Automatic annotation (TrEMBL):
Lineage: Eukaryota, Fungi, Dikarya, Ascomycota, Pezizomycotina
Bilayer topology annotation: Multi-pass membrane protein
Extent of Basic and acidic residues compositional bias: 1-21
Name used for this protein in its record: Hexose transporter HXT10
Domain Major facilitator superfamily (MFS) profile: 58-453
MF (Gene Ontology): carbohydrate:proton symporter activity
Transmembrane segments annotated in the record for this chain: 49-71, 97-121, 128-147, 153-175, 187-206, 218-239, 317-340, 352-375, 382-402, 414-432
InterPro entries: MFS_dom, MFS_sugar_transport-like, MFS_Sugar_Transporters, MFS_trans_sf, Sugar/inositol_transpt, Sugar_transporter_CS
Keywords in alphabetical order: Membrane, Transmembrane, Transmembrane helix, Transport
Family as reported in the entry's similarity comment: Belongs to the major facilitator superfamily. Sugar transporter (TC 2.A.1.1) family.
Protein's organism: Lasiodiplodia theobromae
Length: 453
């Protein structure tokens, strides 16, 4: 459809039937599912979010899973250069390999956790899956906080990474399924906002604790990462189940009630019925497609078969995976995890390197918040194109400056500051584009037959 149907405006066609539709859908127009996706419950953007405080609260709470991911980025970047931390784990003084290995173990755990989350979310619901992985995350955080030696620290980061990966994946899944169509893009940006906010909060907490005596300087910020995760795992149960999950498991009456609660409209409202119909029709279509593609296949074999089905739609998968891959391949983790070392290598002293590192997180936060306001007006594709240009140009300039002046930064301090400045240009371009796009873009390309069973 060329434009969304505004709140209060009924669709053309069999309107009387929609008004009389009960909980169980039947006899609907062929275009009813497409129509439901185009329904507008009100204005989009920030005005729509202000008008929908309940669904915003649910989405913001779920996005705190991203906060835990960002918190680790912020906390480890400054802990890696903390004297108390290096004294506790002398292996880290032996060279960059052991520092990089310890840091990257969280990413490895997160990678593996991503494969675990879809099955868990379908099995026990999106909400309970988030609560379960919060427990995994907290166990990893406890191991990191209490680690007496380097090996235990590495294991704690790997185990906690499983929780981080599942939280970062489960949050946008829940958000995309509770958000009304006209607010989905803006609400999914909350995941990116929370990641960066977590990095900012963790960084400045650790910046303050570095002045404490002994290992409490790094163990305290390690332990504090559990606070937000526990809050998420507990409070998420004050909000409804995902309507799509309820439809998936055959709890259709609860699906309708969940939509009614999320949209703050009675179950008899035609827009609620239309969206409900879309969910049930999609689930039924998906099950029929699975039966047709894999007759007689059940259990683990069906799980594997549905993963393989993803690659039958190569273009969709290439776009969805490509955006996420190149988001990480852009080098953002190098900037966030090793920012103090980066700025020190550009000729800055130790204290200024720490300040610049903290401000780079704040710059990214400002950019991501800006994207929250403009994404539905500018569009995903223009942000992807111009964001890539905005990141590439600073990289080229920084490479040229480093190649020319890195042999003598004290003698070329102005060039060093210019290089630092272009690092900020890169981070702002990233924050307003690829930082949120990796969470927002893939759901835009999903289709019923390729969504998780």
């Amino acid at each position: 459809m060329e434009k969304a149907i505004e709140a209060g405006e009924k669709p053309a066609g069999n309107v009387e039937h929609h008004e009389d539709m009960g909980v169980t859908p039947h006899d609907v127009p062929e275009n009813f599912t497409a129509l439901a996706e185009d329904i507008s419950y009100g204005p989009g953007g920030i005005r729509g979010i202000i008008a929908s405080p309940f669904v915003f609260g649910a989405a913001f709470l779920a996005s705190l899973g991203g906060f835990s991911f960002g918190y680790d980025q912020g906390v480890i970047s400054i802990i890696n250069v903390m004297d108390q931390f290096l004294d506790q784990y002398p292996e880290l003084k032996g060279g960059g390999f052991w520092t990089g290995f310890m840091t990257a173990m969280l990413e490895l755990g997160a990678f593996l956790g991503c494969f675990f989350m879809p099955w868990l979310a379908d099995k026990i619901s999106r909400k309970w899956a988030l609560s379960v992985v919060v427990i995994i995350f907290c166990i990893g955080a406890i191991i990191q906080t209490a680690a007496p030696n380097y090996g235990t620290l590495v294991f704690g980061r790997f185990f906690g990474g499983i929780g981080v990966g599942t939280l970062a994946l489960g949050a946008p899944l829940y958000i995309s399924e509770i958000a009304p169509p006209h607010l989905r893009g803006a609400l999914l940006v909350l995941e990116s906002v929370s990641i960066v906010l977590g990095a900012v909060v963790a960084y400045w907490i650790t910046y303050a604790t570095r002045h404490l005596e002994g290992d409490i300087a790094f163990r305290l910020p390690f332990g504090l990462q559990m606070v937000c995760a526990v809050f998420l795992g507990t409070c998420i149960h004050f909000f409804p189940y995902s309507p799509r999950w309820l439809g998936l498991v055959g709890r259709e009456a609860e699906c309708l009630q969940s939509l009614s609660k999320l949209r703050r409209l009675p179950p008899t409202d035609w827009r609620i019925k239309a969206e409900f119909q879309a969910i049930i029709t999609e689930v039924e279509f998906q099950k029929k497609m699975l039966d047709r593609r894999h007759p007689g296949v059940t259990g683990f074999k069906l799980e594997i078969a549905t993963w393989l089905d993803l690659f039958k739609s190569r273009r969709r998968v290439a776009i969805g995976v490509g955006v996420a891959f190149f988001q990480q391949f852009s080098g953002i983790n190098g900037f966030i995890y090793y920012a103090p070392l980066l700025f020190r290598s550009l000729g800055q002293d130790s204290e200024m390197s720490l300040i610049l590192s903290g401000m780079i997180n704040i710059g990214q936060l400002v950019a991501v918040v800006l994207c929250f306001f403009i994404i539905d007006h500018v569009g995903r594709r223009p942000l992807a194109i111009w964001g890539a240009v905005g990141m590439a140009v600073p990289y080229i300039i920084m490479s040229a400056l480093v190649g020319e002046f890195s042999h003598d930064w004290p003698g070329h301090s102005a060039a060093g500051w210019v290089t630092c400045g272009f690092a900020y240009v890169y981070i702002i371009a990233y924050g307003v584009s690829y930082s949120p796009l990796a969470w927002v873009r893939p759901p835009s390309y999903s289709c019923p037959s390729l969504q998780p069973p």
